[in-house]
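FORM 7B: Structural annotation worksheet

SECTION A. Query
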Amino acid sequence: MTTTTTFSVSANSDDAIRSVTHGTDTESWSDIQHKTFVAWVNRKLIGRNIEIQRLDEDLATGVVAANLLEVLLDTKIRHAKKPRMRIQKMSNLEMCMNVLKEKSDIKLVNIGPSDIVDGNMKACMGFIWELVSKFSAIANKSALIEWLREKVGPDTKYKLNPQEYKSDIKSGTLPCCLIDSCAPGIIDINNLPSTPIERATLACEKGTELGLPMLLSPADLIADHLDDISATTFVAELREDYDVAKENAPAPPKKKLVITVRGPKSKTNAEEGNRSASFNPLSAGGKYNVTITFGSKEITKPGGVEVNNK
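SECTION B. Predicted structure
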């Protein structure tokens, strides 16, 4: 015989979690939050070859929840692997909630096994949010802000304000800067694409190359309705794998020293490393403008030299 227990919940969960709705003004941002949670779950279960699409459908049997808690809590949970009857699904989820209560300080409010089995999206979102807020860097937001300050803050070459990370994500700038700070030179920060979608796309491509978790698509990252939970979870997951990705990142590309001489027809010979060049004017002479760039950054003010071959 299986008894059903409703467990307690954190007071602000109801405010933090929005249900996925259809045909309403809230559809877009709640869908992004749902995508964030689905991606987070899939990332945690990568080693178990489990991938979900929708929380309200894929949590209903209790199998995904059991596997997820086994990973997060480093424990084993007895559960029916292929439940068919409702009573088996209820039993799976009750076991999960009992283990969660025993092994963590998470307290669920108004979320019971029947809510998950019945596909209550709000309850499913609330359940996953409690896990995200406990088992990711989002649990300590002030520490996450300080980490951003260290990597891309005002004292770095990126000069971003870590308190404004959400708006910088939506512009595509923060993802690019974080990826470049992980593997310097992988993105040319001085020549970023001109539009947010191009910048977000570039960051996602390069982040994927480094093995970093890009929980959201470029379009979702720059969406006007990107919510705080999704933005913070995105950054928190990058932080989790940042150090490993940095250790395995390719060596920064060698920057090329370029000395350019413009003027009457001439031959230019740049000697890399010495910041010098010799050139042989092939005309009667004239004024030659000289600029020096290192990588894509100009390192001297344009200068000039007068040549008189008469």
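SECTION C. Observations
Confidence is low (pLDDT under 50) at residues 1-27, 271-275. Residues 48 and 67 are 8 Å apart (CA to CA).

SECTION D. Sign-off
Analyst initials: ____
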